[in-house]
Design brief:
Layout lengths: L1 H6 L9 H31 L6 H24 L5 H9 L3 H19 L9 H10 L2 H11 L5
Length: 150
């Protein structure tokens, strides 16, 4: 219900190009971090002798994607603020955005390959889904609360 209210919030202008640009940059940084952990986990199980079910690999990929996103964000922010503050900011990023990004990426992987499989045909659709899914929410957070992860 909150998502529906988000979309019909009359106090938000959805036509601000500056906010869309900032939300897009923020989402892209998150996508880079999430993709490193997600793709890395899937590729590890794809090319190693370790064996887990597709569901467990995808769950690990989601968890590792979120963790690497937090790690990358902490690293980036540590150039402009103390590491403890950078970490707190990174952990305070919107988990809704990261989880939706990870779920979208893994759903696309599942639809195209059957899950937990990286190949040339799935990378771009996964990245597109991972980018476009949380973008409106990130825009909303910027516009409504002036909150972003960067």
């Amino acid at each position: 219900m909150k998502i529906v209210n988000l979309l019909i919030d009359s106090s938000i202008s959805w036509s601000c190009k500056t906010t869309w640009k900032k939300a897009s940059v923020n989402t892209l940084w998150c996508l880079i971090g999430c993709s490193i952990g997600d793709f890395g986990t899937i590729l590890f199980f794809q090319y190693s002798s370790y064996s887990l079910s597709t569901e467990y690999i995808m769950l690990l990929a989601i968890i590792n994607g979120i963790l690497t996103s937090i790690g990358l964000e902490t690293f980036i922010l540590s150039f402009t603020q103390p590491i403890v503050v950078a970490f707190k900011t990174a952990v305070g990023m919107s988990l809704i955005s990261m989880i939706s990004m990870e779920l979208a990426m893994n759903l696309v992987d599942y639809i195209i390959t059957g899950g937990a499989m990286i190949n040339i045909y799935v990378i771009l659709p996964m990245l597109f889904a991972g980018f476009i899914t949380p973008l409106p929410y990130n825009y909303y957070r910027l516009k409504k609360f002036n909150k972003s992860c960067h």
